[in-house]
Amino acid sequence: MTGKMITNTFTIIFVFGLFSTSLFANNKPSSKEWSVIKLKSGEEMHAAILYKDESKIVVEWQNKALSILQKTISSITKKSTDIQTQKKSYSQLYNTLKTSRIEAVENQVKNTQEAVISIRTPSGQGSGFIISEDGYCITNVHVVEGETRITAIQYLKENNKMIKKSYDKVKIISLVPTYDLALLKLDNTNEKFKFVPVGDSDKLQRGEILFAIGNPLGLDRSISKGILSLSDRNYGGLRYLQTTTQVNPGNSGGPLFNLAGEVIGVINMKLMQSEGLGFAIPSFYLKDFLDHHSTYLYDKKNANSGIHYLPPPFSRSKNE
Predict the structure, then answer these.
(1) What is the pLDDT of residue 242?
(2) Is the dihedral of CA 22, 117, 167, 85 positive or negative?
(3) How far apart are CA 109 and CA 146, in angstroms?
(4) Catalytic residue among 201, 252, 283, 293
(5) CB-based burial of residue 107 (10 Å sphere; 0-12 exposed, 13-18 middle, 19+ buried)?
(6) Core-most of 31, 54, 131, 264, by most CB within 10 Å?
(7) Residues 46, 118, 180, 224: which is the catalytic one?
(8) CB under 8 Å to 25, separation ≥6 — which residues?
(9) Rg (Cα) of the chain, in Å, rounded?
């Protein structure tokens, strides 16, 4: 296990590994039909109906059977599989959801997993995710820092099977070491990529269920689930999301999702020799970086590229 360590009152390691082993599991399509259940109280849920009679329905929710009284329901309709996103302006790189819909983890995994990528470099591996159909994606600075060759690997579903697709032409567009965020571009102009929307981390509630998809220890497409422990953990003068969602070396740069399938954080470190103490960069830092990414443009040929500034020349006083 390798990574960059930070030592303070406790030790934290960036979750970035050197492992290259890949495990591929069977990905069989679910036969469940999902429905939109609107309650008279104004709430809405998306779930598979297991049983229905005149007095109640039983749905599968978070892998458990949940009974709902018919008198509390205002309508039941078949769930649309279309996820509608929007951008505030043409120049905006990322997308947001028009309507936020809470669903079970297993359903949101199907909606988001094809936009999660593995990042490979000569010195290690990490994770990332695609934020636009033209191939812009996010990872951590410490995953790609100092690298000249970057490969992104995407896992796509074709004919009910997962296939692996590699992109060797990956450009670094912008870097901001303060946030540990890097903007990359998959150089394939003829393809429209699967992407995930960016959500609002300020709306998170303590105890809210979250999940991560990434490449821990080289195990591609791994999923872990937990809750939000704290939304404003201070470390190094920055705010982090603290989560019990399990993260390990190789998860660095990967997305932390809410149950609406929105990226609300970018995983970047964990507490050493512990479990359930992972940390993610909140999406409000991510949005700020993307909205002003031109401030942090990367140029590998120019040392003064906005990443490492040259020191100013010293001025001599008249008395010298």
Answers:
(1) 95
(2) positive
(3) 32
(4) 252
(5) buried
(6) 264
(7) 180
(8) 221
(9) 22
How does pLDDT run across 279-304, given as a tens digit for each residue?
999 999 999 999 999 999 987 776 45
For 155: left if phi > 0, alpha if psi spans -120 to 50, otherwise beta; the answer is beta
Q: Is 308 a catalytic residue?
A: no
Return the amino acid letter for 264: I
d(CA 158, CA 48): 24
Q: Rounded mean pLDDT of the chain?
A: 82
Q: Beta-carbon neighbour count of residue 180 at 10 Å?
A: 23
- Provide the token pair at 190: 């003829």
Query: Confidence class of residue 78 from pLDDT cuts 50, 70 and 90?
Result: confident
- If 0-12 CB within 10 Å is exposed, 13-18 middle and 19+ buried, where does residue 43 land? exposed
Q: Taking Cα atoms as reference points, which of 165, 138, 260, 181 lies closest to residue 220?
A: 165
pLDDT more than 90, % of the chain: 48
- List the chain domain ranges: 35-78
Does the pTM exceed 0.85? no
pLDDT score of 64 = 77
Helix, strand, or coil here: 218? helix
Does domain 35-78 fall under CATH 1.10.565.10? My reply is no
Six token digits for residue 303: 């040392």
Residue indicated by tokens 């205002």: 74
SS3 37: strand
Residue 215: CB atoms within 10 Å: 31
Active site residue 46: no
Q: What is the pLDDT of residues 176-227, one digit of tens each?
A: 999 999 999 998 767 889 999 999 999 999 999 999 999 988 888 999 999 9
Please identify which of the residues 35, 46, 132, 142 carries the catalytic annotation: 142
* Residues linked to residue 34 through DSSP beta bridges, in sequence order: 48
Reported as a pLDDT band with limits 50, 70 and 90, residue 276 is: confident
Predicted confidence band of residue 305 (pLDDT cuts 50, 70, 90) = low
